[in-house]
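User: Run a structure prediction on this.
Assistant: Running it now.
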Amino acid sequence: MNPVDLELVKLKRQWQNVVKANDKMPMLICHGEKHETDLFDGFIKSRLSEDYDGEDLFLIHYQEFNGMDAFGQNLFDEWKEYYDLLEKNEENIPKWELNISDNQFDTDANKAFFPLLELKKNFPNLKNSKIYLYIAPLRISNIEELSIWIKEWCKLCEKSENHDIKLVWAEHHTYKTLPENSLAQSFRVEVDIHQLMQNTAAHTNRKKNSVDTDFQQQILTASNHLSKGRYREAEFSLKTAVKLAKEQNNKQGEISAYFMLTQAFIADRKKEKAEDMYQKIFEEVDPNSPLEIQMYMNYGSYLLGNSKKSRAEKAFEKAAEVAKEIGEYAMVIECYRIIGTLNDTLLSKDKMIEYFEKCLEIAKIMEPSTRESSSLKFIASMLFIKYEDDNDKKIILDQEMKNYFGEGWKVSVEKPKHN
């Protein structure tokens, strides 16, 4: 059994214990570091594999949350589309309709909940099974509305006295998206990532004393030292990793080790050394490469963290310049978005509009799929607010976005600042 599978087995046991101990809770929330919630995400996905031998039903959804009056309907529409395909290929499948209740609701959570109740009634083999609805929106238009939708879902579960339908959510244990919910039970997933990485390296690379294996081991050792605050030891391992990467002519590995060194210096409050290391990265990184873009963006974030806004803007500008040169247009938009957002003040509003309009120009040469996954809807929604009484610009912008995304292109954004 490989190390990741071993962690999934551990997670399965924890999940079973959590479910058993919280039988009447309508919602389960997994908390953890990003790598831990990613592993939980993988565990949930494994419930859809052909190897899954359980009786429970898992419904997994990543589509964006686009409002508390539409999310439930969107979920049901997706289920119904699949169900209609089954009806064409299977005989005697019961009809499954969305029965709208006469009760008044604050959201459309009922449009997803009641059909699942109906599904359990229609299929005898689901009678003793639980249905887990795992939602992980890739984009959330309004967090407050999502919270209201979830709380209403939980209340519907509670009122129905059906304990076999549960909502499932995963998020960072510190930077939480959802506010507290008395009807949700949280549990913490913990994975020793450094041990996992070492086990994985041992599992996937059995060759001893090879330069590549030694490089990996130095990176893993440095990660372990960093996690425990041993910065001097981490620095030693990373400098050894740089030396090994140079011997291999492994440019990406070399840059990765340099970048880890900047993180070690930052954590150890050695700002001058971190600055020197970033300059070393820009000397060594392959020009006009995605890695160079990423490093300039990392540098910009570092400068922002040290209250050096003007220098940070120049770093993001450089990243955008390289990204534009090599056709990484989504990265260009992201850099311009950051620069624009940094100027979301009354005094620098014109500069914000300038950079957001640059995003619109880039959007014209993007592939539709890349444009769809970019932050263009957010940028255009902010720009629409910033145009204020300039109706001509608003009309042109609205038409342009409708051509890209259809009628409902706007997303909820924070009210503009007035500082």
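The beta strands are 27-32, 57-61, 131-135, 165-172, 184-188.
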